[in-house]
Fold these 2 entries.
Entry 1:
Amino acid sequence: METNPTRMCELLVGLPAVNVLGVEDDQVGAPLVVHVESRRDQARCPGCDARGQRKDRSAVELVDLPAFGRPARLVWHKQRWSCPAASCAVGTWTVTDDAIAPPRQRLTDRAARWATRQVGKAGRPVAEIAHELSCDWHTVMGAVSAYGEALLAQDSARTTGVEALGLDETLFVRRGERHRKHWATSVVDVGGKGHEAKLVEILEGRTAKAASSWIDAQPEPWRAGIRWGTLDMSGPYRKAFNDSLGDATQVADPFHVVKHANSKIDECRRRVQTDTLGHRGRKDDPLYRCRRLLTKAHERLDEEGVAKLTGLLEAGDPKGEVRMCWHAKETVRSLYEITDPTLAATYLDELVADMADDDMPEEVRSLSGTLSRWRDQILAWHTAFVTNGPTESMNNLIKRIKRIGFGFRKFAHYRIRVLLYAGKPNWDLLATVTPR
């Protein structure tokens, strides 16, 4: 058991390399203020190694972790020295100690690491942490940005071993009087067997240029290791893969292929609705009543559902155009029941040819053209068996950060918080990083 009063103060403060000068506890409800000085001997000039002369002292107040349920402040009395050599370019210098706080930080080192873990790993709001530390939002966010960036930079293993890379867009923010949408691109390691999916990076914008610029900036061995590129039938992302990862095989996500087929059903249904009744769908119109049934998978419809769908189509689809679109969607879904690549290619080619027939509704012919343009990417799934599903799951994590953040103004703040939460960094490294 420690009985030395000075040593007991040091243990309570949690900084054994400092001298505790005093404690202020004047106002009820006010933070507890602890005055300290560093024991480090930095009297030698960093330029010429001459013995310095004491010049003055400056007190820096830092936000610290709560003590005994009360907010706490650490007042660090820094010694300032001057070099006696007239020819030395250093002039003056101030004692530094990263164990107390790095330069330009307003939180103590331990408080900053704790806040970074709480905001990043636990996904807590910055405002909540600021309230707990009894300081302002910007103080906490500055520490999270500095320590978070240092953690991501040191955790090089987080982005290694990527074989399948996914690109997808998420809405970042709406700005201006017209609430214009500003997008962000999620770069995701979609994983594979024995490999966990994780968010690699998030980029401002959803253009091919933004994605290509980031990919081109990565090391050549990393780019050479990418075998598959998953995407949601997006033209800009296909261009990014073509320009920057030409050797990677692009894979169109099956969910988005079927989703596109479902969108053609809706287009056809609305067109037929207008042609037959002269107005948009109303709750009693047959085609409006079956809109949900049309997008359901056939095997998920029971006998009652099939009978209801058939009856509504007979009542509202006199030429059978909507029914033909529904069959087209189901045949597209059947493509993913085939696991043999050769058989799948034959099936898709015949399907595209049949859908392009002049007797088909215009929406089916349009679907045929899309399948033809994306033929190679669609068939690549039957070899790679990777999807953009993990990318969509990362988007859900990103949206959680957006909800608890109640809106973002700066993309840099948005990026660091999303990467710390969804990027799954090695949090054991947080204790070793030094922000600069």
Note: The longest helix spans residues 254-277.
Entry 2:
Amino acid sequence: MQEPFYHNDKEEMQNLLRKFENLLSGSNQSFLDEESFEKIIDFFDEKDDLNRALEAAEIAVLQYPYSASLLVKKADLLIATRRYTEALDNLEKAEILDNGDIDIYILKTDVFLALDEHEKAVALLEDAIAFFEGDNRIDLLFELADVYDDYEEFDKVFDCLSLILKYDPNNEEALYKICFWADYTGRSEESIRLHQQIVDNFPYNELAWFNLGTAFQTLKLYEKSIDAYKYALVINERFDYAYRNMADAYIRLRKYRDAIESLEKVIELARPEDIIYEAIGHCYDKLKQYAQARFYYKKASHLNTEDSKIYYKIARTYINEQSYAKAIQYLEIAMRTHRIQPEFNLAMGECLSKLGNIKEAVIHFSNVVKARPRGIAGWEALIRCLYQNDFQAEALEQIENARQIAGEKPLFLFYQSAILFAMRKSKEALLVLQKAMEKAPKLVKKFIALNPAILQNQSVVDLIAYYKRKRSF
């Protein structure tokens, strides 16, 4: 049905181009009005033929020197060809003829920015914003926000967007943008006040409710953020980002079942993403439903085969079920790309130790120590492994190494005491245990975990009881 109109437009354009060529060749019979010149300029511009477009603009301005719109089109082309001074001259002339054309100020801003004259661009836009009203003022405020963004004056970006929303509280572009800038500039409290005012006046503004929720969430006011997201979802039940953020808030509150419900809604509404499946897996993990956690971690791994941490998380679910051989299978996949990752080596060492492969376990624990020599986790695992497998002399040697590299940590004293007890050096062990209890009595649980039977030693029980009484006073 539209073909005749398209055909007529094409014929009209061909006719205009013939007239333009005749004009260039000096034919006296050829005449083009302003509108025709504008169509010819736009035609060449859309074809990315800037030279012909500029040629047409120059002839048009010669024939219609008092046409502001043609001067603006010529200036736009001059900017595209980096002839900034000429562009500015044309814009100055256009402003005299028609100071109500917003494009003049936007193009002038482009020239000043191209010439790295930031202050001039800001001053020009501020004056124009005061002069214009309505949609033009809002367009100029967006332009000013972009200028501030380019020059990394981020607080002023937030100010511009805030001002736009005061003029037009339902402006979607501003609502989308200010959500990011409120968080980036740390102005969440101001964002709350602004969006609270918007929802008071426009209670069905779903984006304002969403932004209110994100601001509360940034300030760790999770209950309030959830309430705001729920209002957004009442207005638009298919608002998947509200479900995403609400799930995160529930996770922060350790309400994992509620989080799972929200994340399942995201899967219904949006295309599958590994991060969503992984988050559901995390929630089931926290609920100690390891088979369910593993199911979703595996779904995540199918969508993102390169993420080694997902395979590590699958392995952890098997470790929690004491299925160490299966855990090793997934740790091996994780370690194909990250061989020296400390967490992976720590878990692998734990599995191998449980399966009695002490030599390999020690190698993996040693890898953790090499990667993080000042961290305690690697040393602790290495010493514990040696102790539990009756390599007492080697365990004491590693304690000395740990002290020299990671520093004097109370945990090392507790482990030293446990080893000395195992070596039947009870008097020395009690003295070391006393030092440990002086420094960090809460860590005694790790000492007991190494060998629960130690509580049959009355001297140990008396010493622990003494420090418990001492702490209670």
Note: Confidence is low (pLDDT under 50) at residues 1-7.
